[in-house]
Design a protein that fits this description.
By secondary structure, this protein is α+β, with helices and mostly antiparallel strands. Among the domains are: about 35 residues; about 80 residues, no CATH class. The protein is built from five helices and four strands. The protein has a four-stranded antiparallel β-sheet, covered by helices on one side. The longest helix has about 35 residues. The mean pLDDT is about 80.
Length: about 170
């Protein structure tokens, strides 16, 4: 035992006191507790499950909505590109010119407008035409000075337009 006291000779008393105080402080903070286990996920623990389920449902709904919107957007873009193709523009232009020519011929017949260079021109009192399933008929009433234009569409709806014959003085 003597060797122990000889070994202590080289260690000073303040160093020993600091060591003892430090060990007691560490022992004071080093407390043990019982271990408890809890699931962090609300799906397993049940705490906050309604909020968790609502969040998941909202995320699923938003994702489905995004996918549907993306599909609809892509379809609309494809339809716009198809409608704006050179061929479709050409067909629309030809179709509008054909309809313009048909309406010009109809108006010429209704009002008795003659082609240039023709000295005498006959006017008809009525006429009928069918254009894409719509029945177009007109009747000239010289006593009232009007032309009545009736358009009956495929679904049976009727549009009637009455136009004065001599009311277009320019």
């Amino acid at each position: 035992m003597m060797w122990f006291f000889k070994a202590l000779n080289w260690i000073s008393l303040p160093t020993i006191l600091i060591f003892i105080v430090g060990c007691s402080l560490v022992a004071n903070y080093a407390k043990g507790e019982s271990l408890t286990f809890e699931f962090g996920n609300p799906s397993f623990s049940g705490q906050g499950f309604s909020t968790h389920a609502l969040s998941i449902s909202q995320l699923e709904y938003n994702r489905k909505k995004e996918v549907e919107d993306d599909i609809a957007s892509a379809q609309a873009k494809a339809e716009r590109e198809e409608a704006n193709s050179i061929l479709n523009k050409f067909l629309n232009n030809v179709e509008s010119r054909i309809y313009a020519q048909l309406s010009k011929q109809l108006v010429d017949n209704m009002f008795g407008i003659c082609d240039p260079g023709v000295t005498e021109c006959e006017t008809a009192d009525s006429g009928t035409a069918t254009v894409e399933g719509a029945e177009i008929s007109w009747v000239r009433d010289n006593t009232l000075g009007t032309i009545t234009l009736n358009i009956v569409s495929e679904d049976g709806s009727t549009t009637t337009i009455t136009v004065p014959i001599d009311g277009f003085g320019f």
